[in-house]
Amino acid sequence: KIVSVVFVIFCVLPTTLTAVMQIDDWAEVDYSLSSLPAVFQQFIDLDLKGKVFPAGNYTDSPYMAASFTIPDQSDSMLYLAFSEYFFQTSSFAYYTTGAFNMTIAEETCSYFNINTEIFGSIIPEVIKYSVTPYPVMLKLMSTEIPIISLQQDSFTLEVQGSVEVLAVLPDSTTQSLFTLNIAANTSISLNIFDKKLMGSLCLNR
């Protein structure tokens, strides 16, 4: 009887009802029902959109949602499944809002203590532009939308970006020293160990 009552309540809800929640200052998620709930004898199946978009800007993403199935298991009360589409739209939203772009300086990071002398020992050309040791600032920027692909027991992340190294001069102005372009492909595996969710990162290239 309880299941029947729940089913009636869900049936009167329109599937076009928009349910949006703000994740942070950068993104929001649309978790509206994509179809009417399917009620079975032992469980209820809810299909939610799971689309992430830039905060305050509900725009279309370049990705298409694909259907997927959850393995038939019955030893837990609740199962959650996140599609590749969820991670792809998340990546698009954060890239669009510039969340992947950041500046690292000594004032903003207590562990950051690098100067031009250190870079000069690695790249001699730096000494020509900065004989006196000056603090440096790093500007990190994502140049392409990070690509996330789900695998059987892990997922891969492809990142393309750049790192600009600038010298901070005594008058608080900056001088660009050099820029590094980065393209990385990594694999990330998640496992539960001692009741904790643990991740392992492997750099493929």
From TrEMBL:
Chief place of localization: secreted
Domain Lipid-binding serum glycoprotein C-terminal: 72-205
One Gene Ontology CC term in the entry: extracellular space
Localisation per UniProt entry: Secreted
GO molecular function, one term: lipid binding
GO process terms (BP): defense response to Gram-negative bacterium; innate immune response
SUPFAM superfamilies in the cross-refs: Bactericidal permeability-increasing protein, BPI
Pfam (any one): LBP_BPI_CETP_C
Assigned keywords, A-Z: Antibiotic, Antimicrobial, Disulfide bond, Glycoprotein, Immunity, Innate immunity, Secreted, Signal
Domain-level remarks: The N- and C-terminal barrels adopt an identical fold despite having only 13% of conserved residues. The N-terminal region may be exposed to the interior of the granule, whereas the C-terminal portion may be embedded in the membrane. During phagocytosis and degranulation, proteases may be released and activated and cleave BPI at the junction of the N- and C-terminal portions of the molecule, providing controlled release of the N-terminal antibacterial fragment when bacteria are ingested.
Entry function: The cytotoxic action of BPI is limited to many species of Gram-negative bacteria; this specificity may be explained by a strong affinity of the very basic N-terminal half for the negatively charged lipopolysaccharides that are unique to the Gram-negative bacterial outer envelope.
PANTHER family in alphabetical order: BACTERICIDAL PERMEABILITY-INCREASING BPI PROTEIN-RELATED, BPI FOLD-CONTAINING FAMILY C PROTEIN
Subunit structure as annotated in this protein's UniProt entry: Monomer. Homodimer; disulfide-linked.
Protein name: Bactericidal permeability-increasing protein
Organism, scientific name: Brachypodius melanocephalos
Lineage, broadest ranks: Eukaryota, Metazoa, Chordata, Craniata, Vertebrata
